[in-house]
Each structure stands twice: as structure tokens, then as C-alpha cells.
Amino acid sequence: MLKHLYIKNFAIIDELELDFNDGLTALTGETGAGKSILLGALNLVLGDRADNDSIKQACDFAEIVAEFDIHQLDNVSSWLVSQELNADAECILRRRIAKDGRSRAYVNGTPVNLQIIRELAEMLIDIHGQHEHQSIMKSSVQRQLLDDSASHAPMIQAVSKLYIELKLVEDQLQHLQQSSNEQNDRLDLLRFQTQELDTLALEDKEYQSLNTQHKRMANAEKLQSTIEQANYLLSEEENTNVQSSISRIINSLTDISEYDERFSTVCEMLIEALVHIDESVSLLQNYGDNIELDPSQLATIEQRIQNIIDLARKHRVEPEMLYALHEKLQNELDAIDHVDERLDELSIEQKKLEKKYILSCKKLTSSRLKAAKKLNKNITQSMQTLGMNGGKFEIAITPTAKHSAYGLDKIEFTVTANSGQPCKLLSRVASGGELARISLAIQMIIANNSKIPSLIFDEVDSGVGGGIAEIVGQHLRALGNSNQVLCITHLPQVASQAHTHFRVEKQTSNKQTTSQVVTLDKNQRRQEIARMLSGVEITEQSLAHADEMIVRAQEV
Known about the structure:
Blueprint lengths: L1 E9 L2 E7 L4 E5 L6 H11 L15 E9 L4 H9 L7 E9 L4 E5 L2 E3 L1 H11 E4 L10 H11 L3 H30 L1 H17 L5 H13 L1 H17 L5 H15 L5 H28 L5 H20 L7 H16 L1 H47 L6 E8 L9 E8 L7 E2 H4 L2 H15 L7 E5 L7 H14 L4 E5 L3 H4 L4 E10 L2 E8 L2 H13 L5 H16 L1
Helix pairs in contact: 5-13, 6-12, 7-11, 8-10, 9-10, 13-15, 15-16, 18-19
């Protein structure tokens, strides 16, 4: 519920703070006192488009802050968490507009865009009357009101789950069907490309291996002569080969090591070196014995490498990537070859889900028709008590072929204000005052299921008076038992029913006009209702009448 409203530099308001209570709150005041300004400020903080003209003259900015108690509103808390906004027991909406045209909005101190504010506002407060935020005009809200009245949440959840599953299968089916149509040419190309690569029969990393082998065979003569020379110097030259020289050095050092043990260390190191030399000679000899000097084999390798390069160039990849490309093309070909099988599987699954979805929707439709029949009767009866004699309300439920998460029904509120006239769409036949009263009639019926905690009715008494006005007031007071209700009214019959009473006053000082809101005490409220009854001059008779109205309201 709305707990606190702060307004600064807005229209003709300097600075204003209001605390709100449960139940029915009446806002009264003479015409032009500024009641609409309060509603305008509230609309602004709820996400209306900013207007620089609404900033108080000679001020650089205007600011409105609305504080809501949400400790019992789990849906609001969950939504705030999903938006990564603070979700404590209180929710604070703040709007600041500047003369330079800049506008800023905040939720719990975090800057947000107006769409976020509007989504949140729709869960917190509903404004009925001749102004915007008339959510009852939206088809989605009409559907929600009907479903809430019949506690359809489990059925909606079942329909929604099947809809999501069906949509997923249909999307997959559509994608595969498009792929199947578009890839006929692709299939022929893939078969040709994979056949070429199959014929090449390239092995993983074969190109790199062939290059290494080719380098070795192409330089076989150089390798052979180098190995022979190394072996000659290491072990074959008669007097100065490395093996013989090191052996002689080891023998001579061994002879003198008895004179100094440090020669023993040198001998050990030379012996280890001689071992490595012997191994090197053995490896070189073995390598030399296996050097391939076959020109025909070299030519075969060169041709194989050239075939790989040519095919890689054709596919615009590096030769090293040709093997991976072959695997990729083969996988794609296999996938396309099995599309028909997958299409058949998805088609069967789609038909099963479609059947389940339609069956679930039919159950929901049947329940909606029953709930609508009951609501039609109750709301029509409520309209009669609100001065709309002969009026009729009907919820039109028509089938639609378009699947949705909410079923296969098009739900529209229709109404006629006159007996004998056919019902037409609510938005087309209801005047501002009628719309407000119809909204009141609907809210009275579905109040126990309403998820919107605060309701504002602007000029709901338009066009009514006398006993009807008193009934309107009684309805609003009764609605205030389950919701927070704020009502802007000109009728004392409505104001007398309020639990809390505000009076909007206009004051002029130093040629400056400002608007203030006063919370009326018991005596002030008596005076205000008497003023509303008799006009400028308050008489003893009007005071007595005011007392009678207040007492009668408390007895209801």
C-alpha cells in the first residue's frame, strides 16, 4: 500500500508530505484547489511522461517520492529481486525532472528506465477515472481479472507449460524444415566434396609427416656425406680420430692419477664423454645405413604432397587443416542425411503436445465461461446500485486460433449503460464517469482476489447524487476493508464514508499561489462535509446533516 508521498516544486506545490492509512481516504476541496495536481504528481512518479511545464515557476527541478509497504506483496518482492533491485519491506519510487528536460527515475535508490517504473507501478497501484493508468481497459488485465476471480492459476500454469514445450518443438521443426529445403543444393555439394576427400584418404597429420620425409629424402646425398665425414673424424681416421685420442688421454691421466687424485675426476669425465661418442658413432652409422636414395619414392611423396596442396587450395584452407575439414564436412553430411528421421520424430512429438495443449485449453475455456457467467450477473447487479439502471455487463469469450501461454480465448469486457441496447466494448461505450463506476463495480466483486493493493478513484461520483452517491460511498468504504482506496470526490455522501479525510486548499501570498493538503481532524471533517453540503455559507442545519452522515457511515 501507499504509505507516504513527497512532492517538491510541482505545479503550484512548494513542498508537501502526506502519510496514508489503510481503508478509504477521501480527497476533497473546492474546484481548482489542486486535487488533480496531486494525482498528476502521483502519475509522474508512476512513470508518466515528464513535462517541464509541471515544474513550479522559478524552480530548476521538481521531485516526487512515493513510498510503498510491500511486506505482504510476494509478487512485487520477487519481481524486484529479478530486476536486481533492493527488495526489503518498503519500496521507494522517486522521480526528478529538471528545467533542461532531463528526467531521472529511481527504484530503491537505483536508477532505472521508465518502463521498469511502469511495470512495477502496475503491481502497486491502479488509478480509475478520467485519466491514464486505467488498467481495466487492457485486454491482458481483463483476462487476469477473470482468471483471478476463478482461481485459475494452476490451470494457467499447466497451459503455459504445454505452450512452452509445444513452441520449442515447433521452432525446432520449422528450423529443420527450412534447413531441409535450403540444403538440397548443399547436400549435392557436400557429397561431391566428401567423395574427393575420401578418395584422397588423408590421415591425421599426414601432411606434416610427408613434409618431414620429403626433406630427408630430398637431401639424402648431403646427409650421407655429412654422416660419413663425421664418422671418419670420430672413429675411422687412423691417428687423430676422436675416439682414439680420448682413449690415449684417459690412459696417460690414469698413469699419473696416483700422484694427484684430482686427475681421477678428469678421467671419469673423459670416460663418460667417450661413452657418448661411442653412442653417437653407432647412431650415425645406423642412420647412414637407412638413408633412402630411391628417386621413384621421392617422386611419389612429392606427388602426394602436391595433391594435398591442390585440394586444400580448392577448399581455401591450409594443407594442415584439410583433415579437420574432411571430418567437419562428413559430420554435416551425416546430419543432413538424417534430417528426415528427426523431422518425423519432431512431427510426432508436436502432434502429441498439440493434443495435450488443446485439451488443457478447453478445460480452461469451460471454467472461464462458468466464471464469466457468475461475474456477469454480480457486476450487472452492482451497476444497478451505482446509478446505472438498465446497464448490463458481459464478458465476451471468443475462440482464437493463435496459441498463447494463456489459452485459446479472446477475452473482452463489454457493457451497455442503457436497457435494451447491445453490449459493446468497454473502451468504446463508457464515458469517464461510467467507466469509473464500472471499475468500482468490478473491483467490489473481485476485491478478495485482487493483487493490486492500492486503488484510486477519480471523480467516481460524476453524474450521480442523492441516494446513489451514498451507495457509491458505501461501496468504496466496503472496498477499503480489503484494499487501500483513495477517492477524489465532490460529494459529501462519498466523503462521509471515508476512514481518513484530506482537504486540498489553495493559498495566495505575495501574488504567489500555492496548494496545500490538510489532514482533517474530527471537527475539521465535520466542517468540510457541511461546506460540501451547503456551499460557501455553513449553517447549523448543514452541520447537523454532516453529523448525521458521518454517524450513519460508521454504522454501516
